[in-house]
């Protein structure tokens, strides 16, 4: 058995042991196959082992919001790729999506923001790209991650101010606290 396959099997078994009040189950064979495919297609990780560990961990956490295995793993690969491209933590991006849309790619806010990261449509006109579809996950993540990265740089790394700018609520702390809370409670991973 290859080392990476063995490590994935051991990680799956470890995750199936009781932790606290919950019991995690090892991934089903179909999920394992999809995960192996996702790992082989993941190009934003430093190595294959990092990809396997992160995708399995995040897939387990995300299952309640995105039940379809293929859709979930595809989303996670895209989140990781776009977050890394924009020099963001993929887990922060997952927390922002959790706060903004609860992982609904067709979400539309009361002010017209669209998609998982709730990007305002005026950005398409600003970029001269009216044909872009903000409910397309890859497009939405590219826009959203780029915008958040810009605001983090503009605010010299001040997460609260950057998140407030992203949400259009600069000067208020409710939205940043919500995203940071999701990050710490649901998506945080020690590096």
From TrEMBL:
<dbReference type="InterPro" id="IPR008258">
    <property type="entry name" value="Transglycosylase_SLT_dom_1"/>
</dbReference>
<feature type="signal peptide">
    <location>
        <begin position="1"/>
        <end position="21"/>
    </location>
</feature>
<dbReference type="Pfam" id="PF01464">
    <property type="entry name" value="SLT"/>
</dbReference>
<protein>
    <submittedName>
        <fullName>Transglycosylase SLT domain-containing protein</fullName>
    </submittedName>
</protein>
<feature type="domain" description="Transglycosylase SLT">
    <location>
        <begin position="79"/>
        <end position="173"/>
    </location>
</feature>
<keyword id="KW-0732">Signal</keyword>
<comment type="similarity">
    <text>Belongs to the transglycosylase Slt family.</text>
</comment>
<dbReference type="InterPro" id="IPR023346">
    <property type="entry name" value="Lysozyme-like_dom_sf"/>
</dbReference>
């Amino acid at each position: 058995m290859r080392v990476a396959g063995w490590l994935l099997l051991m990680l799956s078994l470890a995750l199936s042991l009781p932790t606290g009040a919950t019991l995690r189950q090892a991934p089903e064979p179909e999920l394992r196959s999809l995960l192996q495919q996702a790992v082989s297609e993941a190009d934003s990780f430093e190595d294959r082992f990092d990809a396997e560990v992160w995708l399995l961990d995040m897939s387990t956490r995300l299952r309640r919001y995105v039940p379809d295995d293929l859709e979930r793993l595809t989303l996670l690969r895209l989140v990781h790729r776009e977050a890394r491209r924009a020099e963001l933590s993929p887990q922060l991006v997952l927390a922002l999506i959790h706060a903004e849309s609860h992982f609904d790619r067709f979400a539309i806010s009361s002010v017209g923001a669209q998609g998982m990261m709730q990007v305002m449509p005026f950005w398409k006109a600003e970029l001269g790209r009216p044909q872009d579809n903000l409910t397309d996950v890859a497009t939405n993540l590219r826009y959203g991650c780029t915008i958040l990265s810009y605001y983090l740089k503009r605010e010299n790394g001040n997460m609260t101010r950057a998140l407030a700018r992203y949400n259009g609520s600069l000067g208020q702390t409710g939205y940043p606290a919500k995203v940071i809370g999701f990050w710490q409670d649901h998506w945080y991973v020690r590096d």
